[in-house]
Design a protein that fits this description.
This protein has 78 residues and is mainly alpha-helical. It contains 3 helices and 2 strands; from the N terminus they run H-H-E-E-H.
Length: 78
Amino acid sequence: MSDTTTNLGWLDGLVGALLVVGLLSTAGGCQKKLFPEKDPRNQFEVHDQLRQDYTPMEVPNAFGEPEPALRARLAPKQ
């Protein structure tokens, strides 16, 4: 009787190589930030910056650590 199984060892190597290439490409894919900190977050910030009426996103608290500037951002504009 003859052996009917085929030798597909090369296929296992190919699948392994494709997995390694896929993992390496996803690991090195995000090298810079998608949204840099210096860029405005929305169109209202662009408007405020152009009118010199910019409210900062964060202010230092009593301990010098940054926290959201909620009072300044939620206060009505004059």
